[in-house]
Amino acid sequence: MSFVAKPARNTGSIGPDGVPDQLGEADAALWRGATTILAANWTGTHTVPSRTLYPHQWSWDAGFISIGLAHTAPDRAWRDLRSLFEAQWPDGRVPHIVFDPGVTERDYFPGPTFWAGEGGPVGSGRGNGGRPNGNAGGTPDRTFSAPAGTNGGPARLSSGIVQPPVHALGAWTIYRRAPGHAAAEELRWLYPRLVAQQEYLATARDVGGAGLSAIVHPWESGLDNSPSWDEALAAVPVTPDVLRRYARRDNQVVASKHRPTDEDYARYLTIALSYRDGGYRDADLGPRHPFLVECPGFNALRGAAELALARIAEVVGADPAVHRARAASITRLLVDRLFDPETGMFHPLDVRTGRRNPARCVNGLLPLILPELPAVQVASLVAVLESDRFGVSARMPVPSYDRTAADFDPFRYWRGPVWSNINWLLWRGLRTHGQVELAGTVRAALLDLVRGSGYYEYFHPGNAAGIGSPAFSWTAALTLDLLADPDPPA
Ligand code: 2M8
């Protein structure tokens, strides 16, 4: 894929205020706005997605944020990734949230107490109290992960689920923008941890047995409330009193109609409790866990991570071939298992029923980021992107769900609105396959959206209004990347 292919390039000189000289006045203002947000969301050790809604560190957010910081503050970009990987579990999983000990339980739900349950705190190193990542349940004891709290602060606890692995892409982007001895040292520190993350996903999460990873919770996809999960969620028996036992906080911070319904939220908690109460073990998930789905977006990003690791391996003196082979295999498996010639796109597979979810969701377009995706699938995805369903246009980037679906919802989280991280991935994927004009349309539309509406978490796909949290980190970060590198190396 384009951004894992070549060493550093300078796309232009930087002015005294840190703004690239090639930017016009409006884009320079956009650049300054984005850097201000990232500075305000920096805690000293990591960047939060949003000061209001998400006051801890999130896994795939950190990957996207590092791609933006690569252009303005590479030291902070490396620190952000380190901060996340310091909380990696001994079995290789990278938790989807690493909690900030300075933030109270009241400020985010579900917080550390929820993820710990009765068994005590959950986290790496000193914080784990020997469970469950401390080699309970037969997980391999990889002790290379530095204990949380090594920076002098208290141990940082974590959730027990994961998110899509975009961190190798982030690490390679930082290195490509600013190579050198110190950057190579950072890669040397990260490489075994990134490999362990991939191994965890390739082995413990190969629940279907074919070689694709299964997610154990919709939150692991990153597209939390997508219609992709509706069928599998409908089969989850809801613990009736779960929302009486646990109070939501998200819909006190932003409007309820922009967030998941109570019914969906009750199912999210039920699934998380099932995994937690099983000690976060992945052995024998099939018979005992209510939600097991192979997501095309998650697995495509796993493949892209292998390609980034191939590049990193060349720098750190490891074998790149093994990573390229894994990316090729993931690409083949995606086509064989998740592509539907009838809809012309990819669909999540419910491992429990063997059924592919029929909804047309944007994660079904993300395999475009894989350079070895066959021409038939590429042409098909491009046709879907250009159709009324997703309708890329100069006016609006790609929505998260089929615009023509009866239950398309322009407000609700991942069920219609436009997200900048997804459009950024589609932009890169289109370029990878030589669709430069269409890629340029996505890029221009995304920049116009942020210029007109602000750096929101997501956007109304009709009137472009910003929704969710303002001053959102990955929107700011990826805006920087779009501005800095309009023509990334192929
Ligand atoms: C959203 O997810 C969190 C749970 O992880 C939430 O709703 O509380 C999602 O958009 C997810 O993709 C994102 O990483 C997270 C933080 O930005 O927020």
Topology:
Layout: H1 25-40, E1 57-58, H2 59-72, H3 74-85, E2 97-98, H4 112-116, H5 167-177, H6 181-203, H7 218-221, H8 230-234, H9 242-245, H10 250-253, H11 262-277, H12 285-288, E3 293-294, H13 296-316, H14 320-338, E4 339-340, E5 345-346, E6 349-350, E7 355-356, H15 375-386, H16 420-432, H17 436-453, E8 458-459, E9 466-467, H18 473-484
Antiparallel strand pairs: 1-2, 3-6, 4-5, 6-7, 8-9
Helix pairs in contact: 1-18, 2-3, 2-5, 2-18, 3-5, 3-6, 5-6, 5-13, 6-13, 13-14, 16-17, 17-18
The structure holds (2R)-3-hydroxy-2-(alpha-D-mannopyranosyloxy)propanoic acid.
Please provide a brief summary of the model:
With 490 residues, the protein is mostly helical. The protein has 18 helices and nine strands. The protein has helices spanning 25-40, 59-72, 74-85, 112-116, 167-177, 181-203, 218-221, 230-234, 242-245, 250-253, 262-277, 285-288, 296-316, 320-338, 375-386, 420-432, 436-453, 473-484; strands at 57-58, 97-98, 293-294, 339-340, 345-346, 349-350, 355-356, 458-459, 466-467.
Describe it for me?
The chain has 490 residues and is mostly helical. The chain is 43% helix and 4% strand. The protein is built from 18 helices and 9 strands. Strands 3-6-7 form a 3-stranded antiparallel β-sheet. Helix 1 runs antiparallel to helix 18, helix 2 packs antiparallel against helix 3 and helix 5 packs across helix 13. It is globular. The N terminus is likely disordered. It binds (2R)-3-hydroxy-2-(alpha-D-mannopyranosyloxy)propanoic acid (2M8). (2R)-3-hydroxy-2-(alpha-D-mannopyranosyloxy)propanoic acid binds next to helix 2.
